[in-house]
Known about the structure:
Shape: elongated
Number of helices: 6
Strand content: under 5%
Distance between the termini: 43 Å
Amino acid sequence: xxxxxxxxxxxxAKQSGHAHTFALxxxxxxxxxxSGPLFGFSDTWQLVINTGTTIVTFLMVFLIQNTQxxxxxxxxxxxxxxxxxxxxARNRLINLEDLxxxxxxxxxxxxxxxxxxxxxxxxxxDGVVDLQRRPMDRPTSPTGVLGxxxxxxxxxxxxxxxxxxxxxxxxxxxx
Length: 175
């Protein structure tokens, strides 16, 4: 049952995002509006569009929620993998979405403090970030360890355009 629902939800979500589906909905509304004089704009005529739109809206809520849950889970898995393979990342942030509200608030407070510390270190204490500093000249962790480029820059061949980008741009990361 679940596999059937997943396939139906994926197909419906994909189809409902197309222009032809929107055009079909517009045509239905136009046909309904044009048919008004034929039915004397009766209560039954109005009930048809109200019932139809209510049913479609009710069903779409479940399909949208299913799609959003699937997309969020896939995104979380991708982020978890990036955290896992990044040398300086905190592995305890994997599965962060499973924490309670209080635990998430504590982690947010801690990360906000780390960001505040990094910002003041980046701007030499004046709160202004120097965008021209090279990654190797900046602290890469909250403990202030200098001289270590971000993992991406370590894997880039010297002189490549991507490395020049990292040399000329500031990329803020939580350690």
